[in-house]
Design brief:
It contains 20 helices and 8 strands. By secondary structure, the protein is α/β, with parallel strands linked by helices. α6 (141-152) links the parallel β2 and β3. α4 crosses α11 (284-292), α5 (110-125) packs parallel to α6 (141-152) and α13 runs antiparallel to α16. Part of the signal recognition particle protein translocation system, which is composed of SRP and FtsY. SRP is a ribonucleoprotein composed of Ffh and a 4.5S RNA molecule. It catalyses: GTP + H2O = GDP + phosphate + H(+). This is Signal recognition particle protein.
Length: 441
């Protein structure tokens, strides 16, 4: 994709804001890439629309092409869509023994994932885990789990010939309770295709076990089919999370995006091989990079943006030491602060401001306040921003009203601006060159 995009954009040399045409051309390529990565058509279409809205009009970072910039926006949007709420690796397994139900088609990797998950819970969280195979369809399925269990040192429910899945689930529950296990994982039978019987059986087991987590195991190579499977399982059984297996293969992982978009269920884990330790928590960045095949471009654009920010800071610094610190500068600083996650990041760019950082922090300086302050600056006229001395009572009233705040809020902002300006001037006298150099380190 990256090559194709840079081809398209080599011809576009102009810099500045992304035009609608730029974005459209780039997104045509992106859409193809998504489809090639097995993202379903409606999902790809929706996604591209979303990116289009975000990208049009955005400023192009110096030293990257518009195409590269679009790719970065696509990547970020993709990560956003893929990311579920909360920590994907954190399973609800308090109140022992907590049942986990594994569902999915035959061969999707349920049994393997059951063992991987058991090993992870045992080793990382120190849980006592019991595994039980409910697969009465395939002749050697139960033995398969027992063998995996002995490999990883996790107990499996003893096999009783002739029992049905519901009876096994009941026995697993009793055993988990009596044996003092923290978690028990029920590995169900799958079918090659979804059918009534499979769903009915899974539903019965669910009703008996009342699982805390129901994980749908999906073969990451199956692409679009996976989405229908996920929707069906979620509809009939109720799924709390998805595990994508075979992500060590050649697949691009487009199923991940489709599945998130269609079911809204979080992807919790990713299977990366046949071995019992080949399970990782889901990381949206990695899958996004894989779907688009363009990790290097994202890194490039990020780097370029960092450089620009440093340049802006340097420019501002120069103005500051000359005593030209106006409201626009202050607004830019406030915006930087928001972006860098508060005071700390900003202070690292501006030496000598530690004391003020503390004061500001004590005053309860959080994102909400910063946003309000930005709103205040925004409701000033151009002239007022350049010369805050103009701000007399009536202007103050108008500005505060425009931002939906009180004059006292505005006064606080003005005081802060004055203090910062004074400090800048003092620092300027201390020696411009030295400080600037230090600041830019
Ligand atoms: P089940 O029918 O859903 O229980 O599927 P199995 O757990 O028996 O897995 C079917 C096959 O897929 C086995 O050969 C596994 O070793 C293999 N498998 C499962 N997960 C992965 C994975 O993440 N990567 C690879 N390469 N193979 C996997
Ligand atoms: Mg199995």
């Amino acid at each position: 994709l990256s090559e194709r995009l840079s081809g398209v954009f080599d011809r576009l040399t102009k810099q500045g804001a992304l035009s609608e045409e730029d974005v459209k051309t780039a997104l045509r390529e992106v859409r193809v890439a998504l489809l090639e990565a097995d993202v379903s058509l409606p999902v790809a279409r929706d996604f591209v629309k979303k990116v289009q809205e975000q990208a049009t009009g955005q400023a192009v970072t110096k030293s990257v092409t518009p195409g590269q910039q679009v790719v970065k926006i696509v990547h970020d949007t993709l990560v956003d869509v893929l990311r579920g709420e909360g920590d994907p690796g954190a399973l609800k397994i308090d109140n022992p023994p907590a049942p986990i139900l594994m569902v999915g088609l035959q061969g999707s990797g349920k049994t393997t994932t059951t063992a991987k998950l058991a090993k992870r819970l045992k080793e990382r969280e120190g849980k006592r885990v019991l595994m039980a195979s409910l697969d009465t369809n395939r002749p050697a399925a139960m033995e398969q789990l027992a063998i995996l269990g002995s490999q990883i040192g996790v107990d499996t429910l003893p096999i009783v010939k002739g029992e049905d899945p519901v009876a096994i689930a009941k026995r697993a529950k009793t055993q988990a309770l009596l044996g003092g296990y923290d978690v028990y994982i029920l590995d169900t039978a799958g079918r090659l295709h979804i059918d009534e019987e499979l769903i009915q059986q899974a539903a019965q087991v669910r009703d008996v076990a009342q699982p805390r987590e129901t994980l749908l195991v999906v073969d990451g190579l199956t692409g679009q089919d996976a989405v229908n499977v996920a929707a069906e399982f979620d509809d009939k059984i109720g799924v709390t999370g998805v595990v994508l297996t075979r992500m060590d293969g050649d697949g691009r992982g487009g199923a991940a995006l489709s599945m998130r978009a269609v079911t809204g269920k979080p992807i919790r884990f990713v299977g990366l091989g046949e071995k019992t330790d080949a399970l990782e928590t889901f990381e949206p960045d990695r899958i996004a990079g894989r779907i688009l095949g363009m990790g290097d471009i994202v890194a490039l654009v990020e780097k370029a943006q960092e450089t620009i920010e440093a340049e802006q800071a340097e420019k501002m610094m120069r103005r500051m030491v000359k005593g030209q610190f106006n409201m626009n500068d202050l607004k830019m600083q406030l915006e930087q602060m928001l972006k860098m996650g508060g005071m700390e990041g900003m202070m690292s760019m501006m030496p000598g401001m530690g004391k003020m950082a503390k004061q500001v922090e004590e005053a309860g300086f959080d994102d909400k306040i910063i946003r309000r302050q930005i709103a205040l600056v925004q409701s000033m006229t151009k002239k007022e921003r350049a010369n805050p001395k103009l701000l007399q009572a009536s202007r103050k009233k108008r500005i505060a009203k425009g931002a939906g705040l009180d004059v006292s809020d505005l006064n606080k902002l003005l005081k802060m601006h004055r203090q910062m300006g004074d400090m800048m001037k003092k620092m300027g006298k201390m020696g411009k060159g030295k400080m600037l150099k230090q600041a830019m380190k």
